[in-house]
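Researcher: Please predict.
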Amino acid sequence: MPTPTPNYSVPVLETARLWLRGYSPTDLPAFVAMFQVPEFYRYLTGKPMSEEDCWSTLMRSAGHWALRGYGFWAVEEKASGRFIGSIGFVDRKRTIEPPIGEAPEIGWVLDAATHGRGYATEAVQAVQTWGDAHFHGARTVCLMDPANLASRRIAEKFGYREYARTTYHDEPAVLLERPARAG
């Protein structure tokens, strides 16, 4: 009989202006609304996502925590209590060259209405600190659209450097890595 996988709960992270927490079913309407705004989805899916697809994304994230002990957090703005995006680490087992391997992959996306406020930097800092402790300073990677210069600047601010250009799902992509930390 296989050994059961532990059921991990999502830790809550707090920054000066944000709560990073597990998803709630009440996040779905805001998530669907964000995926109708071209500025939000242009570097992700290139098209709007249906409620069904958004729900599947939220459910997949919950499962990621249960199976891997890490995943995406919902980003909540403290001042308003609004769900404004997602951030975290994943293991998507992507079929990509060069392969990502076992390196946790960081990603983030925030409501276009919040861009320019420093929320992404604040959230990445909190998640990166958690990741350094959880992954014991291991190498992490991120995959992004080469045209997403704002996210690229944030990634570079946290030590990510380009190591490959590739194609993923017939679209150009850039792979960045943050080398393992001694510790």
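Model: The longest helix spans residues 51-68.
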